[in-house]
Each structure stands twice: as structure tokens, then as C-alpha cells.
Amino acid sequence: MSPFGQLRLLLFRNLREGARNPVLAYALPIIIPLAVLVLVAKTLYRVTDLPGFPTDNYAEWMTPAIIMLTAMTGVGYAATSLVIDIQSGFLDRLRLLDVRPPALLLSRVLFDVVRVVPAGVVLLIVGLLLGMDLNEGVLGIVLLFALLVLWAAAYGGLYFVVALTTKNAQAPLALAPLFLPLQFLSTQFVPRVLLPGWVQTIADWNPFTYMVDASRAMTTGPLTFAPVAKAVAVAVAMLVVTQTLSLRAYNRAVQGA
Amino acid sequence: MSAIEVDELTKHFVGGVRALEGVTFSVEEGEVFGYLGRNGAGKSTTVRILTTLLRATSGTARVLGHDVATEPAAVRKVFGAALQEAALDELMTGREHLEMAARLAGLGKPASAERAAELLESFGLKAAADRIAAGYSGGMRRRLDVAMAMVRRPEVLFLDEPTTGLDPQGRRAVWELIRDLRDAGSTVFLTTQYLAEADELSGRVAVVHDGRIAAIGTSQELKDRLGTTTVRVRVAPADEARVREAVAPDVVAPAEDGWLEVTVAGGEAAVPAVVGRIVGAGAAVDGLSIRPPSLEDVFVGLTGTQIETSAGGVDVGNVTAVRRSVGLPSGHGR
């Protein structure tokens, strides 16, 4: 079977599995971002009164960023499933059937990507209900979801590296709280100018900052080339690095067993 | 050409565990070859190397002429394997397992569905075909696992401890399956920690101990060569000394009610001569019984320890977890 056929078959397996476990697979990624969005929009909305704040609707400010956040609260399921496959021996069965490692890894990455889409849709709807405007129209929304899935794949890569390096199904759970500092040390809550100087420096190195900035350009506008290009470059770089490391960790994991 | 040829195979894991220390044997086509040893003897490591899942540290192994290290893809096409733990996805049904394996093995969609239905039928899983594996019994899991190994109609089949953890009923079903395979002329490499299983199912048996082959032969050969036969005779107390003299240097031990036990090296072939010597010495024998050599005696003689005869007591899951946490190879046994 061609690697592409394998990928399709394995992705189908993951999707079917997700459908049999819908709460964990699809509902869970929505919960935290939804809570953050609603709570923040209903409690901290007066920060928009600060001088230098670019909008007077805090929900509009927060929603695109929170949609990007679903990628960070939603991933991990696939990495854990991969470790379970290693532990159960199912991975050995797949290896005996000549499954190519990249097809296997990619099938899991793509599943993580699929999982965040419903979460993104729900949050977009909630954002609209909270009064957000979509100034960049359909193109902006398409770009927003394209960036969301790219970012989910890139960020999910961290989970794969940890999962395959430790071969411990629980280890990826330890990564879950990482979204908290990344969130605060970015431009998610307030514009860069309102961050303390040292936080600005960290935010400039925080990949999430670039996702947040681009997501706002795609929704609130204005949709310009620079933030989008920067976000794509950062996410692609992260994806390449994490998947290269995952593949190496995978090869070590299966040989050491 | 032998079905499996293994030459001086060694495997040293990172961290210093020496799982195999130079293993050589060959398995003929159509043979059921028993690979008998305790947990940790090196059985699973051998299987994992032969099935291309693990690279050997040194030595070579060929399956139907293909080198497992240099032609893994060719090797994978000719064998099927059911590894130590039934490798199932808890959320997939029996049918989905088999269809997926058939698709990955290169069959088209309709052909895969057909092959899956065929295997479900012949492995007695038809009724459970559309239930997810999480609800399967140990015996059903094992049967599904072996069925997956058969998807490609393999010429050589590896079964790594296929009955470990099964209840007696499940074990009988797997034994029957292996007998069927044997009768159909399949080559089967069967690892086991159960003496009775090796004795019952295998043509030849290799006893593996501490990463080395301690002995190879048919069960009968091993018993004749390495076992001991016990001859029990009942004689009057006055004749005891005659018996001792007649059979020396074989060892005589008194048993209950005037019986004496004479332990003779080798198989039953030695019995007539021993009895002849006793009778010839003028001892009045009024009772005689023989205990033939057992594979267990052979095993104890070779390894210096009793083999586990039941699967109870050891929680394999925990052992694996502990191994993993201390950085030992966490895989399936050693």
C-alpha cells in the first residue's frame, strides 16, 4: 500500500476512534477556551478604557486569540494515543504491516488538527454573539481556520516529542498547563504597548504572540501581509522542528523496546 | 532451505542488559519449533529480531532465505506474527482490525472485507465481529491477534507465548489452532514458558536459558539424552543390599512400604537392563513400576531451576511498568 493510502487508512482509524469517544476527542478542546473567553469578556471588559487600547469591545479583542488558544488546549490526545499504541503492541502490528513512520505520525497530527476545528467554530459563534465584528469577511475566516490548523499541528508537535521520548502516556499531560504562561506572556490579553518591558521581550520570542497578532488581522483587520507571513513562518518552522524530532524519537522508541 | 536460520545472534540492550548471548538454530519448513524458557530467558527478544522489529547487536537471521536485517520488507511479506501481548486497538471491532490489516497488506477494499469475513469465521469470532475489542475475553483477543497474523497467508508463523494469561478453555482453543496449522503444513515458531505446551505441540524444542540455547532436540531426544528414568521395585528388606550392588553406580533411594527407587540416566531404553541386573542378582522382585523422564526434569537439569508451571501470581503489566521506570528495556519480556 502506498504511504498516502496508509495515511488515509490510519487517519480514518483515528477519526472513527474519535467518533467513539466524542467527549474526550471533540468536546474537551472547547471547554477551557470557552470558559476563558466568556469569563474574561464579562469581567475584564473595562480594560478597553485604557489609553492605547485599539478597540472598545473586549470580546472582539479576545475571540481571535482564544480561537488560536483552542489549538493549545485541544492537542495532546493524539500523542497519548500514539504512546498507547506503542504500549499495547498495536504499533508493532502496524510495523509488521510495513506502515511508514511518517504516515503513522502524520495520521495522528492530522487527527489533532481535525479536533480543533469544531472548537474554533463554537468559539467564533460565541464571539459573534458577544458582539465581535468580522471586518475581513469570508477570506479572513478561511485564513483564520487555516492558521488554526497549522498552529495546532505545530504546537501538537511538542506533545509528540515528549510522548515519544518518554514513551509514557501520561507525560503529555504534564505539558497541558504550558498554555497558561504562553497566554500571559503574549499579546492575547492586552496590546504589546501595555505589556511591561520585560514581558514585551518575552512576547517577541513567544510563538503564540504571532498567532494572536495574525488572527486579529484576519478578523478585526486590517488584513496585511506582514503579520500573516510572520505567523505562518513561525508555525511552519515549529512544525518542521517538532516533527523532525518526533520522527527521531519514534525511531529510537521502537528500536529500544 | 530452512524456514528460519539463526546464526550466533546476540542482543545487548543499551544499559547493559544482555538478552541474547549467541544463539544458533534452524527451523525446517513445516515444523512446529518450540522455544522454551522462563520469563527473561530471551524468547521475546529472539522473536522481535526474527520479525524485524528489533535489530540484533551481532549475528544473522534469515527467514525463508531473506536476511531480517538487510531485507526487512521481503521478510515481512512471508511471515505472520502474534506477539506476546495481543496487539489490539480497544476501540476497534474485530472486523475492523482484520479489514485494516488486510488493506495495509495490500488487498483492495472488497478483497479485504472478504478476507476478514473468512478469518472471523475460521477463528470463531463471527458472533463478536462487530463488537469493539475492549469487550473481548482473553481467548478471543488472542484468536483475533493470531487471525491478524494470518491475513497475508504467511508461510512462517511466529507465536510468542500465545497461551500466557489464558484460561484453560482459551488455552485449549489455541492449542487446537496450532495443531491445525501443524497439520496444514505451516512452519510455526512457538515460544512458551509451559513445558506441557512445548511437549504437546512441538516437533523439536529449544531450551533457552540466560540468552543461550541450552539444548535442542525433539522432546523424546531431550528426555533420552538429558532426562532420568525412575525404576521402582518392591523387594524384601533382606534383598535391599543386593539391589544396590546390582545397579551401582546408579543411585538407589528407599521409598515407602518396601519400595526402592533406582534413578537411571536417560530414557526408558535403559529399563530392561536395570531390571535384568536386579533380577539376575537374585533379588525377589514382587512389584515394579517405571516413571519415564519428563521434559521438566530435563529443564531443571539444564537450567538449575524449576520453570513456572502456571501463569498466576505475576502481573505482567506491573513488571513492564517497573522495567520502564528504571530504564530497562520495557518491551515484552526480554
Task: Briefly characterize the structure.
The complex is a heterodimer of chains A (257) and B (334). Chain A is mostly helical and 257 residues long.
Task: Explain what you see.
The complex is a heterodimer of chains A (257) and B (334). Chain A is built from 12 helices and no strands. Chain A is mainly α. Chain A has one domain (3-256). In chain A, helix 2 (22-43) packs parallel to helix 6 (101-129) and helix 3 packs antiparallel against helix 6. The two termini of chain A are 26 Å apart. The model of chain A has no long low-confidence stretch (mean pLDDT 91). Chain B has helices spanning 43-50, 72-78, 94-104, 109-122, 138-149, 168-183, 195-201, 219-226, 240-247, 271-280, 295-303, 316-325; strands spanning 4-12, 18-27, 32-36, 58-63, 66-67, 79-82, 156-160, 187-192, 204-209, 212-218, 228-235, 251-254, 259-265, 285-291. In chain B, the strands form 3 sheets. Chain B has a 6-stranded mixed beta sheet with strand order 6-7-8-3-9-10, with helices on both faces. Chain B has a 4-stranded antiparallel beta sheet with strand order 2-1-4-5. In chain B, strands 12-13-11-14 form a 4-stranded antiparallel beta sheet. In chain B, a hairpin with a 2-residue loop joins strand 4 (58-63) and strand 5 (66-67). Chain B folds into 2 domains: 4-88 and 136-223, 3-Layer(aba) Sandwich (Rossmann fold), CATH 3.40.50; 228-292, ACT domain (Alpha-Beta Plaits, 2-Layer Sandwich). In chain B, 36% of the residues lie in helices and 26% in strands. Chain B is built from 12 helices and 14 strands. Chain B has 334 residues and is of the alpha/beta class. In chain B, helix 9 (240-247) crosses helix 10. Chain A binds chain B through residues 1, 5-6, 9, 13, 16-17, 20-21, 85, 88-99, 167-168, 254-257, and chain B through 13-14, 48, 51-55, 73, 76, 81, 83-92, 96, 100-101, 103-106, 132, 148, 324, 329-332.
